[in-house]
Design goal:
By secondary structure, the protein is an alpha+beta fold. It contains three helices and ten strands, in the order H-H-E-E-E-E-E-E-E-H-E-E-E.
Length: 203
């Protein structure tokens, strides 16, 4: 009887821990499976480049810019037919907040909160490749400074437009999936995705 009582108590504790963990779990995003090469139809890999971005402005749901972003960007494009392409673009980096509304628009946020983020998008493209692009089509392209000044009302310049660089014309650019997840420890987690936004980064 003592053994049964102990086992019953242990089971109850386990259920409590699991439920407590579910109650306190933050937002999540299965972004890796959405920006996997297997999501694209079979084709020839025509673009496979990476580059670093610094001082990019990140926008929140209130249409304000709430953080500086520094990240690595990986761009891959497969050609399925003469004018049909599938692009997968992945981001991994860090952010630092400025004083403005929080990204999820639930509160004001202080400057200097730091964290990490990851995600990307998948797009179907109908167009024509540029036969003589100004940038290489394989390997590392170097760093690009977006030169954001930190004003929540101002965006950034775009020093490198990969679509304009590698395509001479585009009739359709259909971003079929996109999403990013931001982690700031005790300051929260925010998911910004085509499936919906959840959580927030707050003080």
């Amino acid at each position: 009887m003592r053994r049964l009582a102990v086992l019953t108590m242990m089971a109850a504790i386990l259920v409590f821990v699991v439920l407590a963990g579910q109650a306190t779990a933050g937002p999540s995003l299965n972004w890796g499976s959405e920006v996997d090469a297997g999501q694209c139809p079979p084709g020839k890999l025509v673009l496979n480049v990476t580059h670093k971005v610094v001082n990019d402005a990140d926008s929140g749901v209130a249409s304000n810019y709430w953080a500086y972003d520094d990240y690595n960007k990986h761009i891959q494009v497969w050609q399925a037919s003469p004018d049909a392409f599938c692009a997968i673009v992945r981001y991994v980096g860090s952010f630092t907040t400025v004083a403005t509304r929080s990204p999820g628009n639930t509160d004001d946020i202080s400057a200097g909160i730091t964290g990490t983020f990851e995600g990307g998008y998948r797009a179907n493209i109908t167009g024509t490749l540029n036969p003589d692009p100004t940038s290489r089509t394989r390997g590392y392209l170097g760093p690009f400074d977006y030169q954001w000044g930190g004003d929540p009302a101002d965006g950034t310049i775009i020093p490198f437009d990969w679509v304009g660089t590698y395509f001479s014309s585009i009739s359709i650019f259909d971003q079929v999936w996109w999403g990013w997840i931001y982690h700031a420890g005790a300051n929260g987690t925010w998911v910004n995705a085509v499936s919906g936004n959840s959580g927030d980064i707050t003080d």
